[in-house]
Structure formats: C-alpha cells, structure tokens
Design goal:
about 150 residues, mainly alpha, about 75% helix, globular
C-alpha cells in the first residue's frame, strides 16, 4: 500500500510539474505577440506609468509606507533604466526581456522581474550571455544616479 501511495504521489507531482511548464501568464503571451516597435512602445509606456505612479504617490501621501515600498521595489529600477536610456537604445532592453521570456521556466513571472533581468544583463560586462552571467553580482539593484 505504501508503494502504491508513493507511486501515485510521484505521478501526481510529475503531472503537476508538466502542467506548470505550459503555464504562461497573459502578460507574457501579449509580450510575445508584439513586434519590436510595439515592444519598445510597451516598455516605454510601462516605464512612464511606474514613474507617474511613484510621483503621484509621493505627492498625495508623501514618502513612507507604501510609497517607500513602491519606490524601492518598482520605481528605483525604472529611474535607473531612464538614466541608461541616455546611452542605451530601448531596443537593447527589449532584447534582454525577450531573452528572459525565451526560457520556459520564466513564462509565468511578472514583467518587473523581466525588466530587472534586462537591467542587470544590459549593465553587465561581457559580450555573450554566458560572460555577462559570469560577471554579474546578484545583489540588490541600486541604479546609479548621475
């Protein structure tokens, strides 16, 4: 009986794992359907939306509590990307977001995680994905200010 339960458990876990492989978030499905120009527009719109939300929150409720969390967990990264857009084409960030979502295990991850990946890899030294990966330090992102 114990062997049957263990076997059944293993089968159920395998089925569950296989089902999770094919799950894709609606945002990722939408992203993958866009052309390069549309992805650039989507990304820029997302960046502006986060910036405007952060600005509005600080204006209405001040800096603290939820607005502090929002800045530290969403807006700070966006400000760092805006700083990089002076020297880097937005298409480079799109390329890294595409790379992130090309790996099936990330197909259900939120967009800001793909954006964080894009920021890290765009900023990392190295020419190939592997060189960039080897050169990254996976600490908390603290975009530099000019």
């Amino acid at each position: 009986m114990k062997k049957i339960l263990i076997t059944l458990f293993i089968i159920l876990m395998s089925v569950h794992a296989e089902q999770n492989k094919s799950n894709i978030s609606p945002a990722v499905a939408y992203w993958k359907m866009l052309s390069l120009e549309e992805k650039e527009m989507f990304l820029y719109s997302y960046l502006v939306q986060v910036y405007e939300t952060d600005s509005q929150m600080k204006k209405e409720i001040g800096y603290g509590g939820v607005s502090k969390w929002y800045f530290e967990n969403r807006a700070e990264l966006v400000y760092g990307i805006f700083d990089k857009l002076d020297s880097t084409e937005i298409s480079q960030f799109v390329k890294w977001i595409d790379e992130y979502y090309s790996h099936g295990e990330y197909a259900d991850r939120p967009f800001y995680e793909a954006l964080e990946f894009a920021y890290r890899f765009q900023d990392a030294s190295g020419e190939t994905l592997w060189e960039k990966y080897e050169n990254l330090k996976f600490g908390k992102i603290k975009p530099g200010r000019k």
